[in-house]
Amino acid sequence: MEGVAAPVVAPGLHTTMWRQLYVVVKKDVVNELRTKEMLLSMFLFVVLAMVIFHFAFSVRAHTDLTYFTGGMLWVTFIFGALLGLNRSFAHEKDEGCLDGLLLCPVDRVTIFLAKMIGNLIFLLVIQALAVPVFSLFFVSRSYLSDLPAFLAVLLLADLGVCSVGTLLATISMNTKARDLLLPIVFLPLIIPVLIAATLATTAIFAQTASLGSLGSKLLFLAAYDGIFMLAAYGTYDYALGE
Amino acid sequence: MESSRSLTGAPAASAAATRASGLARVASAPLLLAAAGACLALGVLLGFLWAPTDASTMGFSQKIFYFHVPVAETALLAFGVAFVASVLYLRTSNAKYDRLGMVSVRLGLLFSVLVMITGMIWGKAAWGVWWAWEPRLTTFLVVCLLYAGYFVLRSSVEEEGRRATFAALFAIIAFVDVPITFLATRLMPAGLHPVVFTSSGAQMDHRDLIAFLVSMLGMSLLFVGLLRVELAVERLRDELYYLKNRLG
């Protein structure tokens, strides 16, 4: 692969990489916008999960779910993301797109970054639609003053979910078990993100957040993202296989 | 199966030598295991009879420390060995590192289950409940679930080169995740249960320390002995597979 890639990439390494990244991400986004299959099913799943949480937890009249909101939100998003991660490689594999992508003179790390950014975009779109619905259903207090912190939690946790998720989805796509394997390997690895994001989000929704305690969770999430993006960067070549 | 990948990456002609060294490994294992048994027994005796009974609220239940903590550290050692073996496998594609990785994860998982069982016993004695979401116990639960996924992953890939690569990749990521998970469980608000497993190393009586170190040595020897037996078994299994394939 490198042998083929070298002459094309050499002239302007960085601009070429950014362009390749843009093209592969655009391919995923255009492909999704044509069918809207994944976005629609992810959104419906996320809303359904919220409704199910309501019935599962509202065991008494006027139950205050404030201290469950962070957990409900992140369980919903992590399972929703799983749905998307499985789909993101199903097309590539079934239609033989991945072979074509691998034959292109594109660095494999660029493929990883592009797939990760694609998954991140889809997750953010879902969250942009789902968070207002969630707030309407479950959050009784206004958290507008904490909105920047909340957006930071969303973005950092999503980065963690998508970096680990993309790497593991690539592996599981190449196995017999496929979508059965992904949750089994993905969920234990994502527990740290779930813990930090849940604590931070609950604190924001319940308005008990102090800048210091939020800062430590954001820092933790950023560190998690950095470590796993680095790990994915170092190992993605092997995940894609020959 | 390719002959170059059949056993340790050595040519098939040296199969007899490999078998001999495999058997030698098994033969040396009983010595290691006997030494491990002796150290563990001595550690327990020292812990129970010589080391002072804990003066704090834990009292006699603290004695499980001489078993529980060495098991926990050996589990982490096993996952560390698997991590190194996995990195080496990705660099060399030598099947012996894949075997070492797999066997280490298997033993690590076994020791992790032991950590949880002994942790639960200690929890029952110290806090009166079988299960508490204490950071270290929780971490080991997550670790067990994580490394159980390693075997699900292995069983769902048929082609052996790819299976070894994916398994190595996962073992690397999983090992990176262990300290992160532990840190994350520390972020959780502390519950009713005090964290009693603080770093008591510095406050330890020298008799405690000696009993602990003897147990630790015993547990490490047990790990190495089991590792040798398991490695030899896996090696012979690979050889058998290779010979069967040659016969048709």
Task: Outline the structure in words.
The complex is a heterodimer of chains A (242) and B (248). Chain A has one domain (11-57, 65-240). Helix content of chain A is 82%, strand content 0%. Chain A contains nine helices and no strands. In chain A, helix 3 packs across helix 6. Chain B has 248 residues and is mostly helical. In chain B, 77% of the residues lie in helices and 0% in strands. Chain B has seven helices and no strands. Chain B has helices at residues 3-6, 15-50, 65-92, 95-127, 135-155, 160-187, 206-247. Chain B is globular. Chain B starts with a helix and ends with a helix. Chains A and B meet through helix 7, helix 8 and helix 9 of A and helix 5 and helix 6 of B.
Topology:
The complex is a heterodimer of chains A (242) and B (248).
Chain A: H1 2-9, H2 13-35, H3 37-57, H4 69-94, H5 97-103, H6 108-138, H7 147-173, H8 181-205, H9 211-240
Helix pairs in contact in A: 2-6, 3-4, 3-6, 4-6, 4-7, 4-8, 6-7, 7-8, 7-9, 8-9
Chain B: H1 3-6, H2 15-50, H3 65-92, H4 95-127, H5 135-155, H6 160-187, H7 206-247
Helix pairs in contact in B: 2-7, 3-4, 3-6, 3-7, 4-5, 4-6, 4-7, 5-6
Main features:
heterodimer, A: 242 residues, mainly alpha, 82% helix, globular, B: 248 residues, disordered N terminus
Summarize the structure.
Chain A has 242 residues and is mainly α. Chain A has helices spanning 2-9, 13-35, 37-57, 69-94, 97-103, 108-138, 147-173, 181-205, 211-240.
**Biggest interface found:** A-B, 32 and 30 residues
Question: How many domains in all of chain B?
Answer: 1
Q: What does the average pLDDT of chain A come to?
A: 85
Biggest sheet of chain B: strands, sense, closure? none
The number of helical elements of chain A comes to 9
H/E element sequence of chain B: HHHHHHH
Estimated share of beta-strand residues of chain B: under 5%
User: What string gives the helices and strands of chain A in order?
Assistant: HHHHHHHHH
The total of beta strands of chain B comes to 0
Fraction of residues in helix of chain A: over 70%
